[in-house]
Amino acid sequence: MPKTPARKRGTRQKAELAAASDATQNKCSPVLSPKTPKLDRSTTRIKQDVTNNFDLLQETIRGKLCNNQLPENVESFKEQKKHLLEILKRCANLGESNSALLIGPRGAGKSMLMKDVLKELHENNMDITKNLLEVHLNGLLQTDDRIALKEITRQLNLDNVVGDKVFGSFAENLAFLLEALKTGSKESKPVLFILDEFDLFAHHRNQTLLYNLFDICQSAQTPIVVIGLTCRLDVVELLEKRVKSRFSHRQIHVFNTLTFDQFMQVAEKKLQLPKDFKDKSFMKQWHENVKMAFQDKTILDVMKKHYEVHKDIHSLQILFMYPLSKVSALRPHLSAADFVEAARLQSLDAKPAMLHGVSVLQLCLIIAMRHLVDITEGEPFNFEMVYNEYLKFLQKKSHSIQSYDKAIVLKAFEQLVAIELVHPADNSTRTQKEYRPMNILLTKSQLVESLNSYQGCPSEIKHWAVHPVLS
Amino acid sequence: MSVMDRTEESVIRGILEEIPCRENQINLLCDLFGKRNQYTCPALFIFGHSATGKSLVVSTLLKRLELPHAVVNCVECYTQRLMYEQLLNKVAGYQSGPSNNYGSFARCDNTNDFVRLLRSAIAEQCTQEETVYLVFDKAERLREMESNLLPAILRLSELSNCNVCVILISQLVWGKFRTGTGFAEPLILHFPDYSKAELLDIVSRDCPPGYTCEFYSSYANLLMSVFYIACRDLNEIRHLALLNFPKYIEPVIKGEVTTDNAHKLWRNIEPHLKKAMHTVYLREVSSSQWEKYQQEDSEQFGALTCLSTRSKVELPFYSKYLLIAAYLASYNPAKTDRRFFSKNHGKIKKSACPNPKKDMSSQLLGPKAFPLDRLMAIFYSIVDAKVSTTANIFSQISSLVTLSLLCHVGHDDQLDSPRYKCTVSLDFIQSVARTVSFDIIRYLFDFVQ
User: Fold this and answer.
1) What ipTM does the predicted assembly reach?
2) Average pLDDT rounded to a whole number, residues A448-461
3) How far is B39 from chain A (nearest CA, A)?
4) Which residues of chain B are within 8 Å of residue A141 when distances are taken between CB atoms?
5) C-alpha separations of B262 from A179, B203, B225, B266, B312 in Å
């Protein structure tokens, strides 16, 4: 496993100088020249420029990766975009109410599509956006209808109207708001409701909010468009009958249909600088740099492996964070080793990594549990059985490992429960902890794999893991 | 700008010196954090065993680099409101005190308000340009709170449109957090455990004045040879090292041995450390008791074993018998009662085939529930004297339940044929039986066969 060496902060100033001159003289050389150039004014200035450029580069690309900024031009989902635009335009121009659901897996680009459509509206159809009101709701934030209602009032700037009124109940408040919406005719301002995490709204009591929104949609009152974003394919089944019947059943599917080549193009675009970047020559050099990196065999392998596991862009952005964070004036190139390390971080099998840190005693207990489960074919076990199995091993097989008191073994066992490698099979707390039925959440292959990398594991224990003690 | 960088670098160098054996993690975190105004990953998940420096590294980095941050412990903040208000107070730099009647920055009950108020708190501090770090320590507790909380926290930067980085610190692996329809995945960082050499390096740093570092580190090595197989926790080992050091140097102070005679010192300390393993390590003897014991240099270990012999409980005479009867009823199969307790049990059938369930003795499987009638029958049979069935006897049973020596099984009926289980260990019941000179082993099915 290639480990990136710890960066020596102390020598960074000097090395930076070297890198700066290096980068200007020899564009593609990845090795740093060992000699330090003379400190004259021009090199200092160039160095300053290069560091500034790299800071700017970090800032823009990090913004792209972490801030979910909209890409410059969205090419995918043309059909869906046209469909959505049509709905919005019809609502704004003709006063036609509508409802639709955007359905797609996580990270497929639902929110991006929505943002893109809104951006398009803002840029090209000024007259529409001038009187289109937007209300953004999120199922994670507006966890019940009362909060949602408050948020709607706030976003529609009606709180000054509501402010001095005292409402007796939720229903009254809702009625008032609806009245404000209903009194409008076809000529009044259209309202666009965007419900992110739509499936969570379906868990609200009586689905009052959804019912009322869809109801306004159905009856010709204020023109509104309700667009729900969700990742549940069965979301319509969650709706109550009366809500479902008012919903237009217009579903827009946003699925990730990128082939590997397209995926790589998206990846490359993610790392490219925007067109309005100041230093053009630096930008060109960086783009070449990125292109070079994606032709590297190791990086291609990493990307291929990543593509086979996750196709979504979100995980791609997380993958890029690590190699990008390593790029600086000191190391102006994306290195293959960083990509490998990033992939390792993301796909790290966490349980063997955790097993690596348990003590030898705990390892013995885990092996004993594994054997118990194998013998009883998945029946839960308790601490006494594990302890008994452990004692059997000590008596028959072991010569070097000392035996421990039951209390000490119990302490080790409880630590395993605390890190949830072992899980209680029932949730009763009435039995003694020694007799509580437990399950182990670790497969045999994981155990054997981590035994190989375990430092200082006695060979008897390794042998025991494969060959159980027969009574 | 370069001046800024230089101070930052010297700070990081200082941290690297202060926190040994975590260079990779510190450098990685610094790289991910980047410059103050640059975006960081929206969410970071840091996991590793206890005492691997997770919280220490994160909090020291944030504090020393003077980044705007707020750290909350999810055990302390057991409701949404407590957590959100504490986070807001810290982000907004709000001090609650007598001047503001111990209030908070704002009242905040739900995530919706939190996101709105967070935006205003960040605006108030004029830190819009900088990344604000929100650290959730012991993040495994977040799973037990409202189901929407964790997904909302993980996409906080998207929801609030602020430059926010959320850091979750936990002992558990990330797989245990995933629920429902999933959420925005964080960047996962693993803090590996310290190796033996690293542990030694860290422990030998708190060498008491007056002794060389090598001396202390050789002592730590001896200590680890006793404890390392059972315990790899840095905190525990450090605590034990400091606690037992006075005993280790005692011969040196007395002038019996010089510091370089490691063998004699080892001979002196080894039994002491083994004793410590059974007492201090299990917290059966508190550290202060242990220190006192070391100072007094008393041979009378009996005074020390007060907690470890917690299996001595003073009970009334009949309660003892009731408890013994309950233990017998719990651990013996009902069909063997006649053989053990009846005066003339007739012929014992030598069963041709041995019991198929013999391999799992009831000592392994745990106690079984029994009805009250059976308890009373066994009780009358093992008590030699004639006992009248008084209210006293029955109240003693219920007081045994409140002492949680017995436990009531099934809540359905309190009066009509209640069922109980005996929840004491074999050692305990043996010591109870000894006080009434009753040989319990002879009556236990597992041991008689």
Assistant:
1) 0.91
2) 86
3) 5
4) 110-112, 115, 152, 159
5) 89, 18, 14, 6, 41
